[in-house]
TrEMBL record:
The lineage of its organism: Bacteria, Bacillati, Actinomycetota, Actinomycetes, Micrococcales. InterPro entries: Acyl_CoA_acyltransferase, GNAT_N_AcTrfase_prd. This is GNAT superfamily acetyltransferase. SUPFAM superfamilies: Acyl-CoA N-acyltransferases (Nat) (SSF55729). Residues 260-273 have a biased composition (Low complexity). Residues 260-279 are annotated as: Disordered. It comes from the Bacteria.
Amino acid sequence: MRSDASGPDADADARLAEQRSGIAIRELDDMRSLAAVQRLYEAVWRTGPAGTPVTADLLRALAKSGNPVFGAFDGDELLGACFGFCSPPDTANFHSHIAGVTAGAQGRSIGLALKLRQRAWALGRGMRTMTWTFDPLIRRNAVFNLAKLGAEPVEYLTDFYGQMDDDVNRGDASDRLLVRWHLDRPLPPHREQAVPPPPEAIRIPVPADVETLRLDDPLRAAGWRLDLRRELGARMAAGASVIGFARDGHYLVVPAAASAASAAPPATAPTPAEKQETP
């Protein structure tokens, strides 16, 4: 993929990702298509209509108000979908709320294609960042969001959505990691190569497959949740920075003191009164 994320190149990145995945992404706004998105989400999260992650009528309202709902199609078959909404204009941010891909289409990088299409859409409308949340215990999502896309964790959110009534999240606290993706930055180069962390980095592990662990040993899965909340959540609340995620299953965290030292301006930096801010 091209490394320059300016508008036309972002479109090229999105088109190339679609071609590699063998899908076509379309923006959806009719009730029949949006009802199909609702059913897809119910299948991915294994819910019934009463516990659906989002209803078709809400998706219709979002689409009508200018917030895109994208569907990934192989021919006429819907394999994945994503949607989000714009933050207040002064933030220049788009919030991606839900993205899902059917189980049979896993491994085709359809999630990447959807994310890059959202990126191109947002950049084309003057936005510079995208935010979303994900379960920090799910290793594959951490790899995708941090290592593959280069999104930056900004906040640990404890039990953010409360109790969730779906087969993926039921019985577990809904802790989430809020990440911010700088859309106009190049995509991470050499994403398959491990990058050695600085010596002060702390390695915080997550299980290989917490979703299976929740089914087989819910008490042990709950222990992982509390451990991660303490080890990662408390450190982030104290000012530590997450600098990446190692593919062997560890968050790489730089303590608050080291983060502050690396962010400190040089001795020759101008005083606040002299500094010119760039919008």
